[in-house]
Amino acid sequence: MIGAYTGLSFNQFILNLGFPVIVMLGIIAISLFVMMRSELGKAKKIKNFDETLKEMKQTYRLRHRKLLIASLIVLALVIIFFFLHGVFHMPAAVPAVMGAALLMLIRDRLIRRKFGKSHKSHELMEQKVHDTFSNDVEWLIIGFFIFLFMIVGAVEHT
């Protein structure tokens, strides 16, 4: 948004801010290490890595492998189109919105495939979509940004 407002493409924005961001990243990493050194010393050491990894894989099982793969592919496409949006003369928001829409379509297709086409499965699918939008979406954060941009627009207008 900042780059679009100043008339910079995504690539120009990355080139202009790349070095300052890397410098700040180094400063933050060093200062965090200095401040948290005592906490890092108290951290519990892993004795048997393979056993711990197996236990973690069991506890935090990956439930939607196809959705993860599809999400990573869509993310890669969005990033590629961020770099190419200047070539296609489109705003940078277009690849982001297209990626979100594509991912929603893919997720809908995976849910339909899982639950089938019967009436009962249609109700299960609707319940799953409802649960996603009521539980998984961070509505407070979305509302915060909506109102933040409204206030910024109002202040800019006045």
How would the blueprint of this fold be written?
Layout (H helix, E strand, L loop, with lengths): L1 H5 L3 H26 L1 H6 L6 H11 L5 H20 L8 H23 L3 H18 L2 H19 L1
Can you tell me about this structure?
By secondary structure, this protein is an all-alpha fold. The chain has 3 domains: 1-61, no CATH class; 63-115; 122-158. The protein contains 8 helices and no strands. The chain has helices spanning 2-6, 10-35, 37-42, 49-59, 65-84, 93-115, 119-136, 139-157. The longest helix is centred in the first third of the chain and has 26 residues, at 10-35. The two termini are 21 Å apart.
Gist?
By secondary structure, this protein is an all-alpha fold. The protein contains 8 helices and no strands. It has 3 domains: 1-61, no CATH class; 63-115; 122-158.
Rounded radius of gyration (Å): 22 Å
Q: Biggest sheet, in brief?
A: none
General form: extended
Number of DSSP-assigned strands: 0
Strand content: under 5%
If you average the pLDDT, what whole number results? Answer: 85
Low-confidence stretches: none
Total tally of structural domains: 3
Strand/helix succession:
HHHHHHHH
**What structural class do you assign from the helix and strand content?**
mainly alpha
Termini separation comes to 21 Å
Alpha plus pi helix count: 8
Helix content: over 70%
Task: Describe the structure using short key phrases.
mainly alpha, 3 domains, 8 helices
